[in-house]
Amino acid sequence: MNFSTSSRAKKSQAALFAVLVAGSLLAATPASNAATAKVGAACAVNGSVGTIANGNTVSCKNKKWTAFKPAKLVWAAASATYQPKEEFATFAVPKKLNYFKQENLTVSAVTTAGSIDLVNLVAAGRVDIGGADLGSVMQAIEKGANVVVIGGLVQNFPWAVAVKPGGAIKSAMDLKGKKIGIIGFGSGSYPYTKAFLAGNGLKESDVTLIPTGPAVGVAALQLDKGDVDAIAYFTSAYAGAEFNGSKFTYLPNPAALTGVRSLSWVVNADKYRDQPEVYERYLRAANKGLVYSSTNVRAATLVGFAEFPSSLAVGKTAVESLPLGMAQLKAWLKTATPTKGKPVSWNKLGAISASDWKKSQDYTAAAGTIVSGLKINDFLSNDVITNANAFDRAKIVAAANKQPK
């Protein structure tokens, strides 16, 4: 994809990234759960994974360590622009730090109009994998979309409704007859807002929903001017706006939203059935990216800027954009990683329990997005989660810690 940025910004990001590379940021990080392997040598358990001397991951097939065949995937962001969120942690970091290469994967990135658009593209086979709001995925499944969820990404609910501090709106009930700005009707912002209203005894018809676009700064201006009375965005977006001086008062989410999942990994059901190992390899690289990014937000943010220069603050270099980018990525990582333990102990990234699925399904029903229940075993596969976590987190943490924070 083509990006335009100033020559000053390009030189800055290139210099910074060169420093990161020189500091062993791209050092190989082998998988765990097996001794160092050698292609062609005997192995004990078919389906297990190991690492060879150059850091590449290999699989035990027919009791022999076997290199993965090359594969290509198209990854999609659930947003119209690349931002310091999953784009950085699960795409830019794995790409720039060779985690994809270690899995013999070539992964390209595209943007979408939001979760609903992303799911439709996956169902049509035009995109291979992406993190989409689980409610939007369930809606698509109920309508017959040929997709399956293979793991979770955002596990701590990230959405919130914000209003002007000191304004007339003090509670959700004060929103009746008001205008609420949402990212768009193709975004997870839409079903969230419907569920927020339902959880507070309101209906969509009680308010007017106005698309205010993906840039929360624009939405904040509309809120200040009174063009809308409230906005519904995710926490990392609010973090960026607050860093730039915006002030918000957040309305409490209803209790029904506690424990609800948001972005989850969605893939085409037919493609996954034919090549589950390819998607396992992607998730393993993405999980490495999460561990690295959580250990060193600064380094991960610089890597993200290097991959997506369009995410730099307008007219600013990577160094000048760094504080804002770090604030956004840090806020997003809080929604996507366990609340307990340290990155070195996170060995079940992506796992979705039956209770999580039910909570998310209840949330989606409250939003009026789905009507009937969806059987978890029909649309959720946890088959690749164990191997997707089979890597040496300690070495990734050590590599991240070598970089300035």
What's the quick description here?
The chain has 405 residues and is an alpha/beta fold.
> Which range best describes the helical content: under 10%, 10-25%, 25-40%, 40-55%, 55-70% or over 70%?
40-55%
CATH architectural arrangement of the largest domain: 3-Layer(aba) Sandwich
CATH class of the largest domain: Alpha Beta
Strand content: 15-25%
Can you offer a commentary on this structure?
This protein has two domains: 7-30 and 68-156 and 261-401, 3-Layer(aba) Sandwich (D-Maltodextrin-Binding Protein, domain 2); 159-257, 3-Layer(aba) Sandwich (D-Maltodextrin-Binding Protein, domain 2), CATH 3.40.190.10. 52% of the residues are buried. Strands 5-4-6-13-7 form a five-stranded mixed beta sheet, sandwiched between helices. Strand 9 (179-182), helix 6 and strand 10 (208-211) form a beta-alpha-beta unit. The protein is 41% helix and 15% strand. The protein contains 16 helices and 13 strands. The chain is α/β, with parallel strands linked by helices and 405 residues long. The two termini are 30 Å apart.
